[in-house]
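Could you help me review a protein record that somebody else here produced? My question to you is simply how this chain folds and whether the C-alpha coordinates agree. Thanks in advance; the entry in question is below:
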Amino acid sequence: MLFSTLLPVVFPALALAHFVALLSPGQDFFLIVGHSIRHKLQGSRFICLGVALGNAIYIAIAIFGWTSIRDNPVIFSVVEILGAGYLLWIGSRLLKSKASDAVLEAEQEQVPSAIKQLLLGLNSALLNPKNALFYMSIMAVILGNEVTLVQQVFCGAWMFLVVLLWNLFIAATIGQPRVQTNLKHSIHLVERGAGIVLVFFGMALFIDYIPL
Protein backbone atom coordinates (compact mmCIF):
# COMPACT_ATOMS: atom_id res chain seq x y z
CA MET A 1 0.00 0.00 0.00
CA LEU A 2 2.81 2.38 0.91
CA PHE A 3 4.70 1.60 -2.29
CA SER A 4 1.66 2.22 -4.47
CA THR A 5 1.10 5.52 -2.68
CA LEU A 6 4.65 6.75 -3.24
CA LEU A 7 5.64 5.02 -6.48
CA PRO A 8 3.80 5.56 -9.74
CA VAL A 9 3.60 2.56 -12.07
CA VAL A 10 6.04 4.20 -14.49
CA PHE A 11 8.66 4.95 -11.81
CA PRO A 12 11.21 2.44 -13.20
CA ALA A 13 11.02 4.13 -16.62
CA LEU A 14 11.45 7.56 -15.03
CA ALA A 15 14.41 6.44 -12.91
CA LEU A 16 16.11 4.80 -15.90
CA ALA A 17 15.60 7.77 -18.22
CA HIS A 18 16.90 10.17 -15.58
CA PHE A 19 20.01 8.11 -14.82
CA VAL A 20 20.84 7.62 -18.50
CA ALA A 21 20.69 11.41 -18.89
CA LEU A 22 23.17 11.75 -15.99
CA LEU A 23 25.63 9.53 -17.84
CA SER A 24 25.88 12.13 -20.59
CA PRO A 25 28.57 14.63 -19.47
CA GLY A 26 27.35 18.21 -19.34
CA GLN A 27 28.58 21.49 -17.93
CA ASP A 28 27.99 20.41 -14.31
CA PHE A 29 30.09 17.29 -14.84
CA PHE A 30 33.08 19.20 -16.16
CA LEU A 31 32.77 21.80 -13.40
CA ILE A 32 32.97 19.04 -10.80
CA VAL A 33 35.87 17.34 -12.58
CA GLY A 34 37.78 20.60 -12.83
CA HIS A 35 37.59 21.18 -9.07
CA SER A 36 37.80 17.64 -7.69
CA ILE A 37 40.94 16.87 -9.66
CA ARG A 38 42.77 19.67 -7.85
CA HIS A 39 40.95 19.97 -4.52
CA LYS A 40 39.65 16.39 -4.21
CA LEU A 41 36.32 15.72 -2.50
CA GLN A 42 36.95 18.35 0.17
CA GLY A 43 36.97 21.11 -2.43
CA SER A 44 34.10 19.86 -4.58
CA ARG A 45 31.51 18.19 -2.34
CA PHE A 46 29.52 21.38 -1.86
CA ILE A 47 29.64 21.98 -5.62
CA CYS A 48 27.89 18.62 -5.91
CA LEU A 49 25.32 19.76 -3.36
CA GLY A 50 24.81 23.08 -5.18
CA VAL A 51 24.25 21.29 -8.49
CA ALA A 52 21.75 18.94 -6.85
CA LEU A 53 19.90 21.86 -5.21
CA GLY A 54 19.74 23.67 -8.55
CA ASN A 55 18.22 20.57 -10.09
CA ALA A 56 15.81 20.32 -7.15
CA ILE A 57 14.57 23.85 -7.82
CA TYR A 58 13.83 23.02 -11.45
CA ILE A 59 12.20 19.75 -10.39
CA ALA A 60 9.93 21.74 -8.07
CA ILE A 61 9.14 24.08 -10.96
CA ALA A 62 8.18 21.09 -13.09
CA ILE A 63 6.06 19.56 -10.33
CA PHE A 64 4.08 22.68 -9.56
CA GLY A 65 3.51 23.48 -13.20
CA TRP A 66 5.29 26.83 -13.45
CA THR A 67 6.07 27.11 -17.17
CA SER A 68 7.13 30.76 -17.34
CA ILE A 69 10.69 29.95 -18.38
CA ARG A 70 9.54 27.64 -21.14
CA ASP A 71 6.76 29.85 -22.48
CA ASN A 72 8.45 33.25 -22.14
CA PRO A 73 11.26 33.55 -24.74
CA VAL A 74 12.64 36.70 -23.08
CA ILE A 75 13.13 35.03 -19.68
CA PHE A 76 14.56 31.92 -21.33
CA SER A 77 17.01 33.98 -23.41
CA VAL A 78 18.18 36.06 -20.45
CA VAL A 79 18.85 32.98 -18.33
CA GLU A 80 20.59 31.25 -21.23
CA ILE A 81 22.84 34.25 -21.99
CA LEU A 82 23.76 34.61 -18.31
CA GLY A 83 24.53 30.91 -18.23
CA ALA A 84 26.72 31.18 -21.32
CA GLY A 85 28.71 34.02 -19.76
CA TYR A 86 29.09 32.05 -16.54
CA LEU A 87 30.43 29.02 -18.41
CA LEU A 88 32.91 31.17 -20.32
CA TRP A 89 34.13 32.67 -17.05
CA ILE A 90 34.63 29.32 -15.32
CA GLY A 91 36.16 27.78 -18.45
CA SER A 92 38.64 30.62 -18.85
CA ARG A 93 39.79 30.16 -15.24
CA LEU A 94 40.39 26.45 -15.81
CA LEU A 95 42.30 27.20 -19.00
CA LYS A 96 44.82 29.13 -16.88
CA SER A 97 45.78 25.99 -14.95
CA LYS A 98 49.56 25.80 -14.38
CA ALA A 99 51.83 22.78 -14.66
CA SER A 100 54.31 23.83 -11.97
CA ASP A 101 54.36 21.38 -9.04
CA ALA A 102 55.15 24.20 -6.61
CA VAL A 103 52.20 26.25 -7.78
CA LEU A 104 50.02 23.15 -7.72
CA GLU A 105 50.89 22.34 -4.12
CA ALA A 106 50.30 25.95 -3.05
CA GLU A 107 46.94 26.10 -4.75
CA GLN A 108 45.84 22.76 -3.30
CA GLU A 109 46.09 24.26 0.18
CA GLN A 110 43.61 26.96 -0.77
CA VAL A 111 40.49 24.83 -0.84
CA PRO A 112 37.42 26.87 -1.85
CA SER A 113 35.08 27.60 1.04
CA ALA A 114 31.81 25.69 1.38
CA ILE A 115 29.81 28.79 0.41
CA LYS A 116 31.90 29.41 -2.70
CA GLN A 117 31.57 25.78 -3.75
CA LEU A 118 27.83 25.81 -3.13
CA LEU A 119 27.32 28.96 -5.19
CA LEU A 120 29.45 27.59 -8.04
CA GLY A 121 27.33 24.45 -8.26
CA LEU A 122 24.02 26.23 -7.73
CA ASN A 123 24.78 28.85 -10.39
CA SER A 124 25.93 26.21 -12.86
CA ALA A 125 22.64 24.31 -12.51
CA LEU A 126 20.29 27.31 -12.36
CA LEU A 127 21.89 29.19 -15.25
CA ASN A 128 21.08 26.30 -17.55
CA PRO A 129 17.36 26.62 -18.39
CA LYS A 130 17.57 23.39 -20.36
CA ASN A 131 17.55 21.66 -16.98
CA ALA A 132 14.05 23.04 -16.47
CA LEU A 133 12.95 21.89 -19.91
CA PHE A 134 14.42 18.43 -19.28
CA TYR A 135 12.55 17.91 -16.02
CA MET A 136 9.33 19.36 -17.40
CA SER A 137 9.58 17.04 -20.39
CA ILE A 138 10.56 13.88 -18.54
CA MET A 139 7.85 14.31 -15.90
CA ALA A 140 5.16 15.27 -18.39
CA VAL A 141 5.96 12.55 -20.92
CA ILE A 142 6.69 9.67 -18.55
CA LEU A 143 4.55 10.46 -15.51
CA GLY A 144 1.62 11.94 -17.39
CA ASN A 145 -1.41 13.49 -15.71
CA GLU A 146 -2.57 10.53 -13.62
CA VAL A 147 0.09 10.68 -10.91
CA THR A 148 -0.63 12.22 -7.53
CA LEU A 149 1.25 15.14 -6.00
CA VAL A 150 2.76 12.78 -3.42
CA GLN A 151 4.11 10.55 -6.19
CA GLN A 152 5.55 13.55 -8.04
CA VAL A 153 7.27 14.79 -4.87
CA PHE A 154 8.69 11.32 -4.23
CA CYS A 155 10.02 11.11 -7.79
CA GLY A 156 11.50 14.59 -7.41
CA ALA A 157 13.22 13.64 -4.15
CA TRP A 158 14.55 10.49 -5.80
CA MET A 159 16.05 12.43 -8.73
CA PHE A 160 17.61 14.97 -6.34
CA LEU A 161 19.31 12.21 -4.34
CA VAL A 162 20.50 10.43 -7.49
CA VAL A 163 22.05 13.64 -8.85
CA LEU A 164 23.75 14.35 -5.51
CA LEU A 165 25.09 10.82 -4.98
CA TRP A 166 26.25 10.44 -8.58
CA ASN A 167 28.16 13.73 -8.50
CA LEU A 168 29.69 12.88 -5.11
CA PHE A 169 30.74 9.50 -6.53
CA ILE A 170 32.50 11.23 -9.44
CA ALA A 171 34.26 13.71 -7.14
CA ALA A 172 35.26 10.99 -4.65
CA THR A 173 36.59 8.74 -7.41
CA ILE A 174 38.73 11.47 -8.91
CA GLY A 175 39.94 12.39 -5.42
CA GLN A 176 41.25 8.90 -4.66
CA PRO A 177 45.02 8.83 -3.91
CA ARG A 178 45.66 6.28 -6.67
CA VAL A 179 43.85 8.40 -9.24
CA GLN A 180 45.58 11.54 -7.98
CA THR A 181 48.96 9.83 -8.27
CA ASN A 182 48.29 8.76 -11.84
CA LEU A 183 47.15 12.27 -12.73
CA LYS A 184 49.86 14.10 -10.78
CA HIS A 185 51.75 15.26 -13.85
CA SER A 186 48.70 15.86 -16.03
CA ILE A 187 46.25 17.60 -13.67
CA HIS A 188 46.70 20.88 -15.51
CA LEU A 189 45.94 19.15 -18.83
CA VAL A 190 42.71 17.65 -17.47
CA GLU A 191 41.71 21.02 -16.03
CA ARG A 192 42.42 22.74 -19.33
CA GLY A 193 40.42 20.06 -21.11
CA ALA A 194 37.48 20.70 -18.79
CA GLY A 195 37.93 24.42 -19.39
CA ILE A 196 37.82 23.93 -23.17
CA VAL A 197 34.58 21.94 -22.88
CA LEU A 198 32.94 24.59 -20.66
CA VAL A 199 34.04 27.38 -23.02
CA PHE A 200 32.62 25.34 -25.91
CA PHE A 201 29.26 25.01 -24.12
CA GLY A 202 29.24 28.76 -23.44
CA MET A 203 30.13 29.70 -27.03
CA ALA A 204 27.53 27.28 -28.38
CA LEU A 205 24.85 29.10 -26.39
CA PHE A 206 26.02 32.50 -27.64
CA ILE A 207 26.14 31.32 -31.27
CA ASP A 208 22.38 30.70 -31.16
CA TYR A 209 21.91 34.46 -30.73
CA ILE A 210 24.20 35.52 -33.59
CA PRO A 211 22.16 36.39 -36.71
CA LEU A 212 23.31 34.50 -39.79
Observations:
- Residues 69 and 76 are 5 Å apart (CA to CA).
- DSSP finds twelve helices and no strands in the chain.
- Residues 101-107 have pLDDT under 50 and may be disordered.
